[in-house]
């Protein structure tokens, strides 16, 4: 959607060869800071890191009630949070090349789908997070890794800031990030995760789920388990270790004040640019080999595994169907099929599906259609979610939801919330799932959930100083 209306903004560029996104984040003052990154190891991604602080507005949703906070003012709206979110996106288009130059940063939890689909009674919620939480920013710092250039950006989203105020804010940010501060590296105490579900119980869940598969209720269902640890250390130190040990296309650190979300996700849930909407289904995996020869053998083995390929085809079809609900007829197409992408601990089969949004549809409509991804629910999706609700007996929370940004012009890019950790009330939470089909082995699936969690659970096993 192109909007000709414009708003006031100011920007300033700095040489970035002596700064890093991590240093900028640590020096930037303010509350509710965020850092969005993408590893340079992944082609087509990794050019920009975006850092911001001090949101001017927040949208918090739980159930059918939405809270909109602006400064000290709070307004409760008896409306679906996503519908309120649509109203908060200005649609303003600025002549700026960055993918995000102001708007909302945050997440949608898996359970937000309950506003659109009846999947059963709401189970208990031991973590107690909002189902939707987005923070709106108009000041940010963009680090361009390609040109080693930093852009400071201040936008007048509300019509309340003069050019002088915007320039003053740029000067403040410049001073903060270029002034040396002796910020001591924080100690990261050992973080030892324990599964909340014992092996025997999880294996029985798998057997019970397979009975529904064999009866023809579903073709596949993704059952998950949560791992929990005491956490008293510095969450940003944990994130720094994670980004070094497991570089990924979507890396994020979001400080919501009373809790923190961090992660390194390999998978996009949904991305829109103008009228183009893109989904990247991932299904099929193997651990990385210890040698190049072993790695190549595992790659060949993965691409020859008919069970993995069948699961991937099914999830590609799900993505095509999801996009078909919001795209013009005949525009949904497969633009990449069964490529193997490799990460620190694991390799995946990845495809790409694209379409053109239908008239009257927005990126948020595409997000609603895509959530949750078939890779974390199953097929058929609604019946799989009903069974997940029956077996797991707890709200999934952020796991299997979406995390990322919605630009002020309506473009969005949200990662699937996997390989993601929540820190809240001195506890850390990680959740992973296994895709079950008719011949799944319960013990193998249990260990797969633990293996998928390793990128996070192994980060904090030892005492270390954040460097």
Automatic annotation (TrEMBL):
<keyword id="KW-0479">Metal-binding</keyword>
<dbReference type="InterPro" id="IPR005256">
    <property type="entry name" value="Anth_synth_I_PabB"/>
</dbReference>
<keyword id="KW-0460">Magnesium</keyword>
<dbReference type="GO" id="GO:0000162">
    <property type="term" value="P:L-tryptophan biosynthetic process"/>
</dbReference>
<keyword id="KW-0028">Amino-acid biosynthesis</keyword>
<dbReference type="InterPro" id="IPR005801">
    <property type="entry name" value="ADC_synthase"/>
</dbReference>
<dbReference type="InterPro" id="IPR006805">
    <property type="entry name" value="Anth_synth_I_N"/>
</dbReference>
<comment type="similarity">
    <text>Belongs to the anthranilate synthase component I family.</text>
</comment>
<dbReference type="Pfam" id="PF00425">
    <property type="entry name" value="Chorismate_bind"/>
</dbReference>
<protein>
    <recommendedName>
        <fullName>Anthranilate synthase component 1</fullName>
        <ecNumber>4.1.3.27</ecNumber>
    </recommendedName>
</protein>
<keyword id="KW-0057">Aromatic amino acid biosynthesis</keyword>
<comment type="pathway">
    <text>Amino-acid biosynthesis; L-tryptophan biosynthesis; L-tryptophan from chorismate: step 1/5.</text>
</comment>
<dbReference type="Pfam" id="PF04715">
    <property type="entry name" value="Anth_synt_I_N"/>
</dbReference>
<dbReference type="GO" id="GO:0004049">
    <property type="term" value="F:anthranilate synthase activity"/>
</dbReference>
<feature type="domain" description="Anthranilate synthase component I N-terminal">
    <location>
        <begin position="17"/>
        <end position="152"/>
    </location>
</feature>
<feature type="domain" description="Chorismate-utilising enzyme C-terminal">
    <location>
        <begin position="199"/>
        <end position="452"/>
    </location>
</feature>
<dbReference type="GO" id="GO:0046872">
    <property type="term" value="F:metal ion binding"/>
</dbReference>
<dbReference type="InterPro" id="IPR015890">
    <property type="entry name" value="Chorismate_C"/>
</dbReference>
<keyword id="KW-0456">Lyase</keyword>
<comment type="function">
    <text>Part of a heterotetrameric complex that catalyzes the two-step biosynthesis of anthranilate, an intermediate in the biosynthesis of L-tryptophan. In the first step, the glutamine-binding beta subunit (TrpG) of anthranilate synthase (AS) provides the glutamine amidotransferase activity which generates ammonia as a substrate that, along with chorismate, is used in the second step, catalyzed by the large alpha subunit of AS (TrpE) to produce anthranilate. In the absence of TrpG, TrpE can synthesize anthranilate directly from chorismate and high concentrations of ammonia.</text>
</comment>
<dbReference type="InterPro" id="IPR019999">
    <property type="entry name" value="Anth_synth_I-like"/>
</dbReference>
<keyword id="KW-0822">Tryptophan biosynthesis</keyword>
<comment type="subunit">
    <text>Heterotetramer consisting of two non-identical subunits: a beta subunit (TrpG) and a large alpha subunit (TrpE).</text>
</comment>
